[in-house]
Each structure stands twice: as C-alpha cells, then as structure tokens.
Design brief:
eight-stranded mixed β-sheet; two-stranded parallel ribbon; 9 helices; 14 strands; disordered N terminus; disordered C terminus
Length: 299
C-alpha cells in the first residue's frame, strides 16, 4: 500500500524550553493521547520535565480522576469536534492503536502539524510471524520486515513516514495491577515453548520520556527488557517460587519472537537512565510484596 509516500518531510523535532531554576530547562507541554495504565506511571515522571502535562480520554472525568481537572482533556479520534480541544505546540504521546487509517490521516492533517514531537506506542505484533523451523528464533532488530496488511501497522507507518513519529514497538506490559502471576493463576496463559517478550511499566514510562527527549524523528525502537523467555520457563519458576500451577498449552508449534533491545538501551543511556527491571522474577517478587503491603493487615 502506497499511503506512506513522502507527502511531508518528518518534523525536525525542535523542543521549546522554559528556563527554570539553576540552569535547568523544562519542556513546555506534553499531551498524552488515550492515557491509561501506562499514563498513570508516566505523568509523575513527565511532570519533572514539562511545565504542563495533559492527558486525554473519551470520558476524562471518569477515567482520569487521578489528575487535576485542568490536566484532563476530552478526546475521541472518532469525534472531530474534540480534536480542537488539544493544546497547540505540544509534544504528543499517542497511546492507542492508530486505527482506522482514514481517521488517523484526517486527524494528523488537522492537528499533528501543530505538534512538536510525536511518539507513538505500537506493538511488537507489527513484525511478521515467522514460519521458519528455526528454534529458538533469531533476535529481531528494528530493521526486520513488518506486516503492512495489519491496519494498526499502516497507521503507525503513516505517522512515522509522513509526520516524523517515533514508533515504540512495545512488548507485553506488566507491573502493579497487571501481574503475570494472575495471568497464570487464571489460565490466561499456559505452559508452552513459545517465547514471550515483556517490559515493566516503569521502564516503559522512562523509555517514553527518553524517546520524547532524544529519539530521532521517524525512528523505531523495540521496547522490551531484553530477556525473552518461554512460557515453560516462566510457569515452572512461578510454580516453584509461588506455588501457582499451570496447565500445558495445546498450541501446535512453539512460535513467538525474541526481540533485541539494544536501541532502547542506547536511548535510555542518552537520558542518563537504564532499564530497572531486567529480572522478571525479582520484579514479580516486588509486585507481590507491594500488593501485600497495600492490602494491609487482615482483621
């Protein structure tokens, strides 16, 4: 499909700043389109970098009640009358699937030309599912083939090639309130030789900021902890450490992907940071401990 021809040059991504304190600078504003689980972890970090942080939802008073009213914006891609409610000259973090293509393109033409930098949260499902018999599968770099038959991928590529969007292809997100132990306990996932790539939500939030500050317009970054594991490995360790049993998947072939994360490690390094949660099981231990502490003593 030829929708991503060079109709516009990618934006230069120049950041407007406001001097504050002793030689430090805050960016002017950030708008999080479709703020949800990741947004809750991102906003506190972003407020250290931006003078204003806004978040959008189709029902902001209900879904964004953890934010101050002046930070909440009603936005619905399917309702063009809400597009003008977005602030101008703002950095934008796009958190929902970039579909349908027609609306994505109309919205981009109408509103994104006023934005400074644009980061889009994509999915690692963009990469073609391998049919090779190779096992374990080879590591996938950002230059690997993507599946342009998928509507979401078409939208991401439109934003990347025509509007200079930085695309983060995000692995499975976990963290407080989104615990893989619960996935196993409820049978949502089972034992198999399939590989899975994961990223802790705190590391994803840090990566979003690093991309906004240092990402190259039009670039793609795999966002994963760099330690692909099979569900066999995860389930066996979970059973041994937490006594949570799992069943065996009836999936006929292993499949899955093993993603490289070299580029985001370099990006985080530019921001003076690094991945905090590369050991899944240590992270799960911390989530469990915090959950017990939050629950408080039983009566």
């Amino acid at each position: 499909m030829a929708f991503f021809v060079g109709l516009r040059s990618p934006r230069a991504g120049t950041l407007l700043t406001q001097q504050v304190g002793a030689g430090k600078a805050l960016q002017s504003s950030l708008t999080i389109l479709g703020s949800g689980y990741t947004g809750k972890f991102l906003v506190p970090l972003a407020e250290q970098r931006y003078t204003q942080v806004f978040a959008t939802s189709r029902n902001p008073d209900r879904h964004l009640d953890h934010l101050r009213p002046k930070q909440r914006i009603r936005f619905d891609l399917a309702r063009s009358d809400t597009w003008s409610l977005l602030p101008v000259e703002t950095d934008v973090l796009w958190c929902f699937p970039a579909i349908p293509l027609e609306l994505v393109e109309q919205f981009a033409k109408s509103a994104l030309l006023r934005a400074r930098r644009l980061v889009v949260l994509g999915s690692t499902s963009s990469y073609n599912d391998g049919t090779s018999a190779e096992y374990p599968p080879s590591r996938i770099e950002e230059t690997a083939m993507i599946d342009l038959s998928k509507p979401r991928v078409q939208g991401e590529e439109l934003l990347r090639t025509c509007y200079g969007a930085i695309v983060l292809r995000v692995a499975g997100i976990y963290g407080p309130g989104r615990n893989p132990l619960d996935w196993i306990r409820t049978g949502r996932v089972n034992r198999s030789r399939k590989y899975v790539n994961l990223i802790h939500v705190e590391d994803l939030a840090a990566t979003c900021l690093a991309a906004l500050m240092h990402g190259e317009p039009g670039a793609v970054y795999n966002v994963t902890d760099g330690n692909p594991r099979t569900w066999n490995e995860i389930c066996e360790t979970v059973e041994r450490r937490w006594n949570i049993r799992s069943s065996v998947s009836d999936e006929p072939r292993p499949g899955g992907k093993r993603l490289s994360n070299n580029k985001i490690c370099e990006l985080l390094n530019l921001d003076g940071a690094g991945l905090r949660h590369t050991d899944l099981f240590e992270a799960l231990e911390a989530i469990q401990k915090n959950s017990l502490n939050e629950a408080g003593p039983s009566r």
